Amino acid sequence: MEKEGRKEGAAGKIEGIMEQRGKRKGETNIAAVVDFLLANARLVLGVGGAAVLGIATLAVKRLIDRAGRPPDDEKPDKSIPEGWEELGLVSASPQLLRKGLEGVVIKQLTAASKAQKGPKPSTVSEKLKPEIKRVQLCVTLQEKLVQYYQNHVALSEDDVSRVKQQALEICTELQGFLRAKQPDMPLGEMHLGGSLLDGLQVVAANHACLLVPLQIEDKFWTLIPGEETILSNPQFWMVRRTNLEYFPRGRSFWDKFIIGGYLSSKVLVNTLNKTVMESMNWPALDGMLECTVRPVMGSQELKLEVHSEHGQLFINILPTIIVNDVILTAQLEVTGNFDNLWYQSFYTSETNKLADLDDADCGVRKRCLKTLKAVCRDCPALRKLTGRHLANVILHLSEKESDWTEAAFADRFQQVISELIGYLEQGCLPGYFNKVVNLLSDCSEEEIDDIGFTLYCAVSEPEILLQT
Ligand SMILES: *[C@@H]1O[C@H](CO)[C@@H](O)[C@H](O)[C@H]1NC(C)=O
Predict the structure, then answer these.
(1) How many CB atoms lie within 10 A of CB 273?
(2) Atom 1 in ligand 1: which residue has the minimum CA distance?
(3) Helices in 401-444 by DSSP H: which ranges?
(4) Res 260 pLDDT > 80
(5) Which of 92, 130, 421, 456 suits a disulfide with 39, CB 3.0-4.6 Å?
(6) Are strands 292-295 and 303-308 parallel, antiparallel or unpaired?
(7) Atom of ligand 1 nearest to the CA of 273
(8) 325-353: pLDDT as tens digits
């Protein structure tokens, strides 16, 4: 139900654009669709190449379906002009549609390149007349982006420091309680981490992350890279108990958390849930901290909900193992039914790399990332795209694009969108720090289509993304 509503929302926006462009229903509407499609195809093809045609095809198919839908009891095919049947694009399979589309796009591109020399474009393209006002678009887009960032994306420093302070106070209480309850548990200092700390949080300062570092003994525990586990998923590592013949079970505190020879993230999370979340006297904290803190029930995450006069705040508690450069977290919401998997997080490397690159050239990568994070947060069709996806695209793009100056903000913003479409089209976004990780692997085909469709529609009309 909700999902349907979301789709309508995204498609509704697109339809709005269509209506602005094509003044009448029916033929003009279809022409507007094609006009729009080709304008976008040309912009995207320059970057992502023909790979983008699949998503373009989907966009056309949906737009045709919508355009061809009878307002009331009219027959659907009445409003479809004959030209479309000739092209074989109406009610065609995606494959056929794609073929037809390729033809149209190639004709159109050839015609465009010949246009200056004189000969008139073909009948199809004559009808379509795509207009690209890229330069004009960028001037205003840049201004709009700057405004959007200032008014909507960026957090006030007061908010950030207040929320940090609140999270730190809760952190101190948790740590004290845990130490009293489990004095032998070898834990490092619990601390604040994540986007709030790194200046990457957007729109509202309403979530924080507390990292709980586990101290595991090198001689007892070995980290097994994801590819070498039975699941052979590069994102999920395992932590094996070793040297049991010399150091029998019980020598390490963490031996209590073993399942089948491995340190279990699930047992650990459940234990922390029991010893802290379920047994802390939360109401006793209320007066002290001037807010209400309660564990979130029915969640797979260790999560607290905080209410104060300033509003709501969520705090995630994340058990973490760090050995050399490898950072593993216990996140049952991503490791699902597997009791022994640990998620390898590249968040720190990605965030540091972006900051270093920006520092070196006074770049706007982080601002670009935050703007897109806000866009994806606010647009239901894009909600599956997280800071992680966006940061990786920006890191990849930084390899081939050197101009990240203030003046290039709008260009890079649009380029990130085009690049994303390219990755979605291939169904694969390789991790920047580990190329074998596909960051789109947890998106269904339908979700990828939805994201691709929305982004494709935003290529020539990026303003649709900046609605607040
Ligand atoms: C912790 O326990 C509560 C209630 O017993 C439960 O609702 C919640 O889902 C548990 N959290 C985790 C992370 O297991």
Answers:
(1) 17
(2) 273
(3) 409-426
(4) yes
(5) 130
(6) antiparallel
(7) 1
(8) 999 999 999 888 899 999 999 999 999 99
pLDDT for res 382 = 94
Q: Report which ligand 1 atom has the smallest distance to the Cα of 269.
A: 13
Tokens of 375: 């866009």
Of ligand 1's listed atoms, the one at least distance from the Cα of 277 is: 1
Token pair 């029915």: residue: 298
Spatial distance between the Cα atoms of 118 and 121, rounded to a whole number of angstroms: 9
Q: Are strands 207-213 and 311-323 parallel, antiparallel or unpaired?
A: parallel
Q: Could you write out the DSSP letters of every residue in 132-178?
A: --HHHHHHHHHHHHHHHIIIIISPPHHHHHHHHHHHHHHHHHHHHHH
Domains along the sequence of the chain with CATH: 2-118 (no CATH), 158-345 (3.30.460.90), 348-466 (1.10.1410.40)
Residue 305 · residue 299 · CB < 8 Å: no
Give the closest residue (by CA) to ligand 1 atom 12.
300
Structure confidence by residue, pLDDT tens digits, 89-143: 444 455 555 555 666 555 655 554 554 344 433 433 333 434 444 444 445 799 9
φ, ψ (nearest 5 deg) of residue 353: -65, -45
Q: Give the number of other CB atoms < 10 A from CB of residue 422.
A: 20
Burial of residue 128, with CB atoms counted within 10 A of its CB: 0-12 exposed, 13-18 middle, 19 or more buried: buried
Instruction: Tell me the CA–centroid distance for residue 300 and ligand 1, in Å.
Output: 7
Q: Which run of H or of E encompasses 323?
A: strand 311-323
Q: Do residues 235 and 244 touch, judged by C-beta distance below 8 A?
A: no
Q: For residues 13 and 293, what is the distance between their CA atoms, to the nearest angstrom?
A: 39
Cβ–ligand 1 contact at 317 (below 6 Å): no
Confidence of residue 446 (pLDDT cuts 50, 70, 90): confident
Rounded to an integer, what distance in angstroms lies between the CA atom of residue 210 and that of residue 212? 7
Question: Which of 462, 386, 464 has its CA nearest to residue 9?
Answer: 464
- Ligand 1 site, residue 297, Cβ cutoff 6 A: yes
Q: Is-contact 365 398, C-beta < 8 A?
A: yes
Q: What is the mean pLDDT of residues 293-313?
A: 94
